[in-house]
């Protein structure tokens, strides 16, 4: 793993970030992927559903960590898997995986990158898509980070563009601006009729960092290809609020 390389000579490499930069530069120079180099990161992403990877079954309670060095031939899907659900947060992943029958009956495999997804999680998503799973949905926060996380799955990341693991079919199913409006409308009457009081229960104010990130997202080359995402970002900025999946 990358971490093992660092500990071979911490004095020479100084930090894990230097290792990451060197490996990515090396892979990009030779037009290879980290997997081609035989190097992977320690496990981070989670998977749950009717899928076997490296002989392990991930449909049991809570799923498990995605193996850091799986091969395409070691991944097997159940015949009735029809979709993939990308979940931003581990807490939501755990809550949904505890409802085992619901997830399985819907024919879903869940992936969770615990925030911004690592290369291994994105590689598994691409492989599952190549194995015939057509529907890919993302459940992320209604905030700039949520949009960028979905964008990382759908368009890839700038620094790792040479890895070619983007999955263009990703669609965001929530949290959307219409969900936020519904939440505020539902909570406001319970707070005594004053619309402002209820909204504080479900939304938060955008921070200066949030606004900076949202404005940066509007300049991304891919934003013109996703007009609905652009509208969501514009509404965040206009309303000045964000809302978490919880």
TrEMBL record:
It comes from the Eukaryota. The active site is at residue 7. The keyword Isomerase applies. PROSITE patterns: TOPO_IIB. CDD domains: TOPRIM_TopoIIB_SPO (cd00223). GO terms for biological process: meiotic DNA double-strand break formation; meiotic DNA double-strand break processing; reciprocal meiotic recombination. It catalyses: ATP-dependent breakage, passage and rejoining of double-stranded DNA. GO terms for cellular component: nuclear chromosome. InterPro entries: Spo11/TopoVI_A (IPR002815), Spo11/TopoVI_A_N (IPR013049), Spo11/TopoVI_A_sf (IPR036078), TOPRIM_Topo6A/Spo11 (IPR034136), WH-like_DNA-bd_sf (IPR036388). Keywords: DNA-binding, Isomerase, Magnesium, Metal-binding, Topoisomerase. Pfam families: TOP6A-Spo11_Toprim (PF21180), TP6A_N (PF04406). Its EC number is 5.6.2.2. Residues 84-246 form the Topoisomerase 6 subunit A/Spo11 TOPRIM domain. The keyword Zinc-finger does not apply. GO terms for molecular function: ATP binding; DNA binding; DNA topoisomerase type II (double strand cut, ATP-hydrolyzing) activity; metal ion binding. PANTHER family: MEIOTIC RECOMBINATION PROTEIN SPO11. This is DNA topoisomerase (ATP-hydrolyzing).
